[in-house]
Amino acid sequence: MTMVRRPLQRQPWLKTIPRRESVGGLSSESDGRGGCAWKGKEREGMAWGATVQGGSDGRDVVGGGCTPLSARVPATNDQPWSIHGGFIRQISFNGTRAVGVNVLYNNASRGKINARKEVILCAGTVNTVQLLLLSGIGPRKDLNKYQIRTVSDLPEVGKNLFDHMNVPVYVNLKAPVSLTLKKMQSIQEVAKYLLFGTGSLSSNRVLATARVNNSGIILFGMASTDEKLLKDIANYQTETFRSLFPAYNDTAHEGFLYLATCLRPKSRGNVTLKSRSIFDQPKIDPAYLQNDYDVRCTHEAINLAVETLNSPKFREFGARVHFPDFEECRHFRQDYRDQDYSECVMRIAGVTSHHPCGTCRMGTDDNSVVDEKLRVRGVIGLRIMDASILPSPISGTPNSVLIAMAERAFDVITERTSN
């Protein structure tokens, strides 16, 4: 079951920071449960982190406001089911009407699944584009390049790609107050997780967030980390990783990590085909920092992270920011207040938040890929419901927005009205 919850245990050093204490010019507002949260209106300030995850503790998405499917769909013999061990090769069309999907199974056999009413794509920002293009929906000139018959000439398919790019800002602590790999791998923590699904191993360590204007930071509550794991996830070279994380080989090192980001970047990338094969991953150009605004915005986010360390409690814990010593940046003053140095660091160390969106933009204009009812333009019986339809960036992680969109999509698709 999917859960929406706050961290199972806030680290003691965070608990000591008063809820309404000014931190770097920011203040946090109580949520009535010993923390703070942003809800509804756009806000500035600090807030405790919350996660959406599986588990036995916390509130599920239904408890968070969504109606369970079982309460909305009448009981019939046509219950949802899934197929494992295969790939959707393309959408099948009869003229311009989507009538099903063509499947390639793991045993190399091929098949077709027919749709009684509609086909709904939920393959994500990258793979939805790939399926559309392979099925003949997209820019005609790109389809002609791979001898794909055009079903609907939609020039914007694969365009408008945006993502949140994070820049790690490493903070050392003198006080032994943070979570370390050594503490996390203790017998007590392992037992908590195996027996009760609780403890530090059950958390993603996103403890708090803050924002000012369009610049945001995430407080990730660990400084020591597994070198191989993070290098693989972030695609860092060894020298880059070790310059960013000076305690990479010290499992007991005290500290934490800020991730600084521009919440609404203006740069736009694209997703295009590499070949006609569904097994060839498409080409992705995220175009990070292509727009100068994103450089300034990210620079402000980095400095927001540094400014929070001037609060009394952070000073008491001996918080000190680390400046990575990249060879390419040594001719700049090693200070995040220097925008040239910050830009140099962000271009080397910037990493995806895994929030790609926008490649099948929804809108009321003729250039949009889907209309306000999620229907793909130029064809019949095909809708999209995933992050690809978002027309512009979300100020933060998009998963909660997508949950709400899916809830609304149910009403739209079944022609019902949600109150």
UniProtKB/TrEMBL annotation:
Residues annotated as domain Glucose-methanol-choline oxidoreductase N-terminal: 91-165
Pfam families in the record: GMC_oxred_C, GMC_oxred_N
Segments for region (Disordered): 19-38
Domain of life: Eukaryota
Domain Glucose-methanol-choline oxidoreductase C-terminal: 265-406
Listed GO MF terms: flavin adenine dinucleotide binding; oxidoreductase activity, acting on CH-OH group of donors
Family under the similarity heading: Belongs to the GMC oxidoreductase family.
Protein name: Uncharacterized protein
